[in-house]
Backbone:
């Protein structure tokens, strides 16, 4: 008998992208922001990947996307239809903890979203006591919100097979399985990064099925490689410092792209690689695949800017491959701060090179960038950061710009991370955090302070930001860092200052990783992604009478979101009828 499993996906995106986070501070308030519950239209990358893998081993695995949008009744009905004595597990795939306004809203019987969803899980268990619930995520902090029998973290292709063998009584407990008490509950956890590494993974395709009801305007995640060659000081991505080529087999990539094109007409993807261009051969491989395809794919993903600057031969490869929307983790345009994090290219060279990259790609036909920066790196003060911001908004006008205060996880947060950054480890090893005289790294001294010392006053911030700021200022899992140029509170004040500037929507467009929010459903297309949210002349003409209809691209998704909700509801009905 074929063994079965069901994987729920959907906890993979938070509302608070740089778009909504920054634009929400702008002039126009929307219905979506104030009344609606937001569900992401993005397909669950982890769920489809694990499902594809287990199917190759003979399992029958069905993925249920958008699960936060399913009502309790709908999910129980689905389980009633699908679960039988061959069903071994119910998986839950997560990428981020469900946070933000949506998660806080009250559901039917006065419970918040999380309580409601967890109680639904309990009801599923009551009805079908033989199935085990397994939470899977890169970082276990994303899964712990769910009541699961097991938690598995990191790339899990190897670990899940061991766990399922154990659950079915064929094997002893997987090595490294630990029981930890977290938030008053005993949790059985397996950290695959340490015990069952699955990187590189040459056939990391996600194979969608007829019962996934894919659409041509879906923008799925595409995994081309796992891990990054570098190890920047602040970076907590799971697999860093890899040696050699960790990318997929060429045929596997070709087959995946062809399958999605032939079956659903899909051509646009977001790439999950930590860094796409850390290896020339990798780029050349994707270039070869793209040339064999009967269509031009379009990819959005993380590109290291300094490599593009120092290796112009990568440009043609990237363009041919279809990598035309780039997220550059520039972090800072201050040399001292850049050296501190491990991105030390001289900022003048970097800026000059980036303008050449911009011009070259734009001349080829399509180019969009997101420039991502960190507020408050040691060595950088307010003026220096604003100077960097001004350069970005001038030279990359109409592209997107992301900026957020430096986050250093500590204590509980650190324990839940699969891969704390170098900086987080250094911070945790300070000799005497109780009596903190400072930690000196690369010539910069940082120390821990507190809300009182910093003079925190949340009323100084725009109200949309206050909850997040409070988490940073008071949460036990976040370091209250300070250095001689800035502290975490001042970084928030600076964030607030930049974000609430009403001209910002005229200077920037959509983040390259969020195209699906606009495109899926048909309201916008890839060319629209080249526009700023708001035209400058419209902004000037309308002044205070600006409405959301004046925007080129509506960052609040006022019209798009009802369409996407309908797509999700249709999906649910099709699943129930399948
Ligand atoms: C691409 C990416 C992004 C993109 C796109 C994210 C998206 N929504 O699709 C962008 C740039 C938008 C982004 C932003 C952020 N990101 Co990010 N991002 C990633 C990255 C590099 C890849 C994610 C991915 O798609 N992987 C491919 C899929 C296939 O992998 P996967 O989902 O992990 O699945 C595997 C395992 O997790 C497991 N698994 C998954 N599901 C299941 C289910 C079962 C049943 C089982 C058994 C196993 C299993 O097996 C799978 C296959 O091996 C990861 C780091 C990494 N390398 O994983 C960080 C990561 C997900 N991001 C992270 C963070 C913190 C953020 C931000 C909050 C950063 C910030 N401070 O702003 C924002 C929030 C964005 C938002 N508003 O939603 C953290 C999440 C940590 C956490 N628990 O919260 C990660 C893990 C990086 C890290 N270690 O710090 N991110
Ligand atoms: S910041 Fe980017 S380049 Fe640096 S280690 Fe992380 S993924 Fe790699």
Residues:
């Amino acid at each position: 008998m074929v063994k079965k499993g069901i994987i729920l996906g959907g906890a993979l995106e938070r509302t608070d992208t740089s778009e909504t986070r920054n634009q929400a501070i702008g002039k126009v308030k929307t219905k979506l922001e104030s009344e609606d519950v937001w569900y992401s239209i993005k397909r669950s990358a982890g769920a489809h990947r694990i499902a594809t893998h287990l199917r190759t081993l003979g399992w029958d695995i069905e993925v249920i996307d958008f699960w936060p949008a399913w009502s309790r009744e709908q999910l129980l009905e689905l389980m009633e239809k699908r679960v039988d004595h061959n069903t071994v597990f119910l998986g839950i795939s997560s990428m981020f903890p469900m946070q933000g306004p949506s998660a806080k809203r009250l559901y039917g019987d006065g419970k918040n979203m999380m309580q409601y969803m967890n109680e639904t899980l309990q009801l599923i268990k009551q009805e079908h006591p033989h199935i085990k619930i397994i939470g899977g995520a890169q970082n276990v902090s994303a899964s712990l919100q769910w009541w699961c029998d097991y938690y598995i973290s990191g790339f899990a292709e190897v670990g899940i097979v061991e766990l399922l063998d154990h659950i079915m009584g064929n094997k002893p407990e997987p090595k490294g399985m630990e029981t930890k008490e977290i938030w008053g509950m005993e949790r059985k956890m397996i950290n695959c990064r340490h015990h069952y590494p699955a990187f590189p993974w040459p056939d990391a395709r996600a194979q969608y099925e007829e019962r996934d009801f894919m659409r041509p305007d879906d923008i799925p995640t595409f995994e081309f490689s796992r891990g990054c060659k570098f190890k920047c000081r602040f970076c907590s991505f799971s697999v860093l410092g890899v040696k050699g080529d960790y990318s997929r087999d060429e045929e596997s990539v070709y087959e995946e792209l062809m399958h999605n094109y032939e079956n659903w007409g899909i051509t646009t993807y977001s790439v999950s690689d930590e860094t796409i261009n850390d290896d020339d051969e990798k780029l050349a491989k994707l270039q070869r695949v793209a040339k064999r395809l009967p269509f031009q794919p379009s990819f959005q993903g993380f590109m290291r800017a300094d490599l593009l600057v120092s290796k112009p031969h990568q440009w043609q490869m990237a363009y041919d491959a279809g990598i035309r929307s780039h997220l550059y983790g520039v972090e800072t345009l201050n040399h001292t701060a850049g050296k501190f994090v491990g991105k030390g290219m001289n900022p003048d060279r970097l800026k000059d090179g980036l303008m050449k990259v911009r011009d070259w790609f734009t001349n080829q036909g399509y180019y969009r960038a997101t420039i991502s920066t960190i507020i408050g790196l040691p060595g950088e003060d307010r003026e220096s950061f604003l100077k960097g911001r001004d350069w970005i908004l001038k030279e990359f006008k109409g592209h997107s710009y992301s900026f957020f205060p430096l986050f250093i996880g500590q204590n509980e947060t650190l324990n839940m991370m699969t891969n704390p950054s170098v900086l987080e480890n250094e911070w945790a090893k300070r000799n005497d955090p109780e009596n903190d005289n400072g930690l000196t790294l690369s010539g910069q001294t940082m120390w821990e302070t507190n809300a009182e010392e910093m003079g925190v006053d949340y009323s100084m911030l725009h109200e949309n930001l206050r909850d997040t700021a409070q988490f940073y200022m008071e949460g036990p899992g976040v370091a209250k860092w300070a250095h001689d140029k800035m502290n975490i509170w001042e970084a928030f004040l600076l964030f607030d200052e930049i974000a609430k500037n009403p001209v910002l929507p005229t200077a920037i467009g959509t983040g390259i990783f969020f195209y699906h929010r606009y495109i899926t459903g048909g309201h916008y297309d890839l060319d629209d992604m080249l526009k700023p949210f708001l035209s400058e002349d419209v902004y000037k003409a309308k002044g205070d009478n600006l409405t959301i209809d004046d925007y080129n691209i509506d960052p609040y998704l006022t019209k798009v979101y009802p369409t996407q909700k309908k797509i999700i509801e249709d999906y649910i009905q099709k699943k129930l009828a399948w």
Notes: The radius of gyration is 23 Å. Residues 153 and 356 are 41 Å apart (CA to CA). Residues 4-199+567-577 form one domain.
